[in-house]
Automatic annotation (TrEMBL):
This is Recombination-associated protein RdgC. One of its GO terms (cellular component) is bacterial nucleoid. InterPro entries: RdgC. It comes from Microbulbifer thermotolerans. One of its GO terms (biological process) is regulation of DNA recombination. The keyword Glycosyltransferase does not apply. HAMAP family: RdgC. One of its GO terms (molecular function) is double-stranded DNA binding. The gene is rdgC. It is found in: Cytoplasm, Nucleoid.
Length: 330
C-alpha cells in the first residue's frame, strides 16, 4: 500500500463528503469482472482487499479509495496474423484486394471470437483525498492513469473540481538554479539522478544515474544552457524520490526508520496494520509535499478546474441570454 509514485491534484472547491457518503456513492460503481465480450472493466474495490468490505478507508481525515481495472489480453501480433490469413483467403477466392474497411471488419470479428478465451489482466490503483490539505494524491506512474481514476471518481460522485498541482515558480528553472549553484533547498539534499534537456532541442536529453550531481561535468552542461527536467532529491535525510517539471514524484522510497515506526504500532489484524501504515504514510506525504511546494515558491492557486470553467461559461451564457431578452422586451 505504500505509494511509490505521486500524482497530486489540487482541490479548487472544498471536499465535503464524509467517508460514509463517499462509500454510498461509489457502491453503484463497484468493480465487476469482465464478461465474455468485455475488453475492459473499471470499478471500485475495498482498499483493504479481502480484509475489508468498505470502498472507502478513512484515517486522520484522509479518505483512501482503490480502483481496479481489468483488461482482456489479446496480443496484437496474433490478431494481425489471423486477419491476414482471412484477408488472403478472401483475396484468393474472389480474386480481389481486401480494402482497409473490410480488414477492420475482419479484425472486429477476430477480436469478438478471441475475447471470451483471452486471459484477463488486473491492476489496482490507490488514491486518497486529503480535504484538510486540499488535494487528491494518486499512486500513478503516468498522468493518463491518474486522469482515468479521476474521471471515474468524478462520474461516481457527480462533481470533483481539481487541477494538477502547480507551483508559483517554474520547476525546470528552479531545479536548474539549485543544481547550478549547487545548493539544495531547505529540508532537501541532492540525490544521484537527474535528466537534463536542451530547451532549444527537445530531442537533446542527458540522463544521469548514480552520479554526483554536483560534479563539474554536470555543471558544464548547465552552463551550456541545458535545463533540469527531473531531479533526484532526499527529504529530511531519509525519503528519496525523483521530481519532474510537472511536480510528479516517482521512485518514492520511504526511509527504514519510517517503516519501522509504522511496524511498531500495535495491531491485532490486517485491517489495523493497514490503518497504521496509511496513517503514517499520509502524514509523511503531507509534510513532504508542503516542504516541496515551499521550495518551489508555494502553490499556484490561480488555475481553475475544467468544471469551474464550464460553470463560468454557462453563467456567462445565461447572463448574455437574459440581457438579450431584456433588450427585446425594451
Amino acid at each position: 500500500m505504500w505509494f511509490k509514485n505521486l500524482r497530486v491534484y489540487r482541490l479548487t472547491k472544498a471536499f465535503s463528503l464524509t467517508a460514509e457518503k463517499l462509500n454510498e456513492l461509489l457502491e453503484p460503481h463497484a468493480f465487476v469482472p469482465c464478461g465474455s465480450q468485455d475488453a475492459a472493466r473499471y470499478g471500485w474495490v475495498p482498499p483493504l482487499g479481502r480484509h475489508g468490505n468498505q470502498l472507502v478507508h478513512a484515517a486522520n481525515g484522509y479518505l483512501m479509495v482503490c480502483a481496479k481495472k481489468q483488461e482482456k489480453v489479446i496480443p496484437a501480433a496474433v490478431v494481425n496474423e489471423k486477419v491476414e490469413e482471412l484477408a488472403q483467403a478472401i483475396s484468393d477466392k474472389e480474386a480481389r484486394q481486401v480494402g482497409r474497411k473490410e480488414r477492420q471488419n475482419l479484425k472486429d470479428e477476430v477480436l469478438l471470437e478471441m475475447r471470451p478465451k483471452a486471459f484477463a489482466k488486473s491492476r489496482l490503483q490507490y488514491a486518497y483525498i486529503a480535504p484538510k490539505d486540499g488535494w487528491v494524491v494518486i499512486d500513478a506512474a503516468s498522468a493518463s492513469a491518474a486522469e482515468e481514476l479521476l474521471e471515474n471518481l468524478r462520474e461516481a460522485i457527480s462533481s470533483l473540481a481539481v487541477v494538477p498541482l502547480a507551483a508559483k515558480n517554474l520547476p525546470q528553472q528552479t531545479m536548474t538554479h539549485w543544481l547550478t549553484a549547487p545548493e539544495a533547498p531547505a529540508q532537501f539534499e541532492f540525490g544521484h539522478e537527474t535528466e537534463l534537456r536542451d530547451p532549444k532541442d527537445s530531442g537533446s536529453v542527458i540522463r544521469c544515474k548514480n552520479q554526483d550531481l554536483c560534479a563539474e561535468e554536470i555543471h558544464n552542461h548547465l552552463v551550456a544552457g541545458l535545463q533540469v527536467h527531473k531531479l533526484g532529491l532526499v527529504w529530511r535525510g531519509g525519503v528519496e524520490f525523483i521530481v519532474d517539471d510537472q511536480l510528479a514524484i516517482k521512485k518514492l522510497k520511504f526511509s527504514d526508520a519510517l517503516l519501522e515506526k509504522a511496524d511498531s504500532i500495535d495491531s491485532e489484524n490486517a485491517a489495523q496494520r493497514f490503518d497504521a501504515d496509511f496513517s503514517v504514510m499520509t502524514l509523511e506525504i503531507s509534510a513532504l509535499l508542503k516542504d516541496l511546494l515551499a521550495a518551489f515558491g508555494g502553490a499556484n492557486t490561480e488555475s481553475v478546474s475544467v468544471e469551474e470553467v464550464m460553470v463560468r461559461a454557462a453563467r456567462a451564457e445565461a447572463e448574455r441570454h437574459a440581457a438579450e431578452v431584456e433588450e427585446v422586451a425594451f
